[in-house]
Structure formats: structure tokens, C-alpha cells
Specification:
By secondary structure, the chain is α+β, with helices and mostly antiparallel strands. The protein is built from three helices and seven strands; from the N terminus they run βααββββββα. It has a single domain, classed as START domain (Alpha-D-Glucose-1,6-Bisphosphate, Chain A, domain 4, 2-Layer Sandwich), CATH 3.30.530.
């Protein structure tokens, strides 16, 4: 059975353009996460992050609003399908609300990814953009 999570936070004092560009730019993504990222920033482009732990393909780019990716980690079994990740960005009076909707996660792994998004993406982004 596949699992789903939804996590969100607000990154203060930035615009959605800043988060969007950092997510799809190899150097900026590497800088804010602290792990090497290689990103081909186009629809159909391949990416890897966290020194190859995460890999996938970008399916949709709606500049400054939404990114959709097929996504997997080295923790997925060979039999597991790629998960689906939607990154939704919304400018607010405080900054940017970022919401991640992560679906098709292999059974038993969603709690780890939910915490991972908070620890390895949201917290470093808040620090990077402050």
C-alpha cells in the first residue's frame, strides 16, 4: 500500500520566485541543503540531490507557483514505483508558504520522509533565506 504526506511551512522575508529558483538550480539547491544537487531545470529534466540519495524527473514547472516531480531515494526498493512530489509556493504577507504533497511513498516510509522534509529542507531553507 502506498502512502501520502502533506507538510508545509512559511519561509519569511522571501518571495516565491526565490524558493522556486533555488529548488531548480543546482548550485542554490546544493547551498541551501548542504548536499550536492545536479538539476536539469526543464520539464523532462533529470535531477539528483543530497549526493545522489534523491533522484527523479521534473514533470511540471509553473514558474514561482508549482513544481511537480517524479521522486525516489536510494531507500526505495527496485520494485517500488517513483513517488510523486508537488511543491506548491504561495506568496503571503509574511513570506512564502511552501507546501509539499508527497504521494506514492512505499509503505512504512512516509513518517521518515515527513520528518526528513522538515529537517533536511524546511529548516535549512529558513536558515539559508534569513
Amino acid at each position: 500500500m502506498l502512502e501520502k504526506i502533506k507538510v508545509s511551512t512559511t519561509i519569511k522575508t522571501v518571495k516565491s520566485k526565490d524558493i522556486y529558483e533555488a529548488w531548480i538550480d543546482s548550485k542554490k539547491h546544493s547551498d541551501f541543503t548542504g548536499g550536492e544537487a545536479k538539476i536539469d531545470p526543464k520539464i523532462g529534466g533529470k535531477f539528483s540531490a543530497w549526493n545522489g540519495y534523491i533522484t527523479g524527473t521534473t514533470l511540471q514547472l509553473d514558474p514561482y507557483n508549482k513544481i511537480v516531480q517524479k521522486w525516489r531515494t536510494s531507500d526505495f526498493s527496485d520494485q517500488s514505483i517513483d513517488s510523486n512530489l508537488e511543491i506548491i509556493l504561495k506568496d503571503t504577507c509574511e513570506g512564502v508558504e511552501i507546501t509539499l504533497i508527497h504521494t506514492d511513498i512505499p509503505e512504512g516510509q512516509s513518517k521518515d520522509y515527513e520528518q526528513g522534509w522538515k529537517d533536511f529542507y524546511f529548516s535549512p531553507m529558513i536558515e539559508y533565506f534569513s
